Amino acid sequence: MKSTELPLIHLIAAARPNFMKIAPLYHVLSKADWCRVELVHTGQHYDANMSDAFFRDLDLPTPDYHLGVGGHSNIEQTAQVMLAYDRVCEETKPSWIVVVGDVNSTLACALVGVQRGIRTAHLEAGLRSGDRHMPEEINRLLTDAICDLLWTPSPDADENLRLENTDPARVERVGNIMIDTYEMMRDRIQKTLTYCRFGLNEGKYAVVTLHRPSNVDDKSRLTTIVDALETMTSFLPIVFPLHPRTKKMLERFMLFERISGITDFHFIEPLGYVEFMGLASRARLILTDSGGIQEEATYIGIPCLTLRENTERPITLTEGTNRLVDIFTLTEAVDDVLSTEPARKTPPALWDGNTAERVANSLRRNCAP
């Protein structure tokens, strides 16, 4: 049992990508002799089974606090997280709050910390898509504007903060925490042969993940995507871990039954981290609209087609395996990937599995009296 006189650090988790970002840091800080660490799960991710699976995969304990906010509109969710987390801070009085990523809970907990005078740090700071129609972009901008300490993953993030006239003393490049998670779980990932469940061969299938409203909430757009996926299966089987939102919209637009009947198309339930990375790391290509998967694909060297107009992770385009594509050229982009041998690239600087140690060292320096 650690002394209650040690600085208390809160790590905030909300949606699944957050779990993967806090896990390596939690494991480092929980072993440290200079601080105490507590996990706060806001409950923003509304599927408890999916959340629990990620905690098990990442060897995380039951959260010290579960706010139980659940799914609401962006505004209501942000407000409810603020109210619930404020009560936790009143009770526990942390020395530091660490928020990660760009979800509503990231901004909400940062606002609580700043309003209460609690030092607050943002892990994965400085990322920008330039698209202020995305709620995540607003969360990123506001979180970076108010946090005391900004930990960036890459030089482009540093440059974004410089262009916003951020005090350089607040900025520290630490690298990509997602790579720590992959390295932490590498042995288990390599032993996980998820693709064998579907009678597939390594390097002979595609993994698809789609969930963004811009792709799945419009019937015409989603129909065009389904058309392209059907064409893809004529030359490459597809495994599609189905996000609850995407499933709901496919059913609403009467597309679910059609796509379920396509030969070599495999809908599956959302996977835990280890199972998903076991599947993705042996794919021929990944098609996604997620943020983090762009980074993971770059690190493991799998071609990635991102179905978006922009990305807050441009380093995956310039130094990685990622390409932005639109729904009307998707089939041609897949053809291009399959006709070209994947280029092996060196991962970006500081994407080395040691980010959590750098973050912990930064925290320790900043906790000093």
- What is the CATH first-level class name of the largest domain? Alpha Beta
Gap between N and C termini, in Å?
Answer: 23 Å
User: Which runs of at least 5 residues are low in confidence (pLDDT < 50)?
Assistant: none
The pLDDT mean sits at: 93
- Main beta sheet, described? 7 strands, parallel
Shape: globular
Structural class given helices, strands, pairing?
A: alpha/beta
Q: What is the element string, with H for helices and E for strands?
A: EHEHEHEHEHEHEHHEHHEHHEHEHEHEHH
> Roughly how many Å is the radius of gyration?
20 Å
CATH fold call of the largest domain? Rossmann fold
Strand order of the largest sheet: 3-2-1-4-5-6-7
Instruction: Name the CATH superfamily classification of the largest domain.
Output: Glycogen Phosphorylase B
- Measured as a percent range, the helix fraction is 40-55%
The CATH architecture term of the largest domain is 3-Layer(aba) Sandwich
Per DSSP E runs of 2 or more residues, the count of β-strands stands at: 13
Summarize the structure in words.
- The protein is of the alpha/beta class.
- It folds into two domains: 8-175 and 352-367, Rossmann fold, CATH 3.40.50.2000; 187-338, Glycogen Phosphorylase B (Rossmann fold, 3-Layer(aba) Sandwich), CATH 3.40.50.2000.
- It contains 17 helices and 13 strands.
- The strands form two sheets. It has a seven-stranded parallel β-sheet, sandwiched between helices. The protein has a six-stranded parallel β-sheet with strand order 10-9-8-11-12-13, sandwiched between helices.
- Strand 4 (96-100), helix 4 (104-116) and strand 5 form a beta-alpha-beta unit.
- The longest helix is centred in the first third of the chain and has 19 residues, at 74-92.
- It is globular.
- The mean pLDDT is 93.
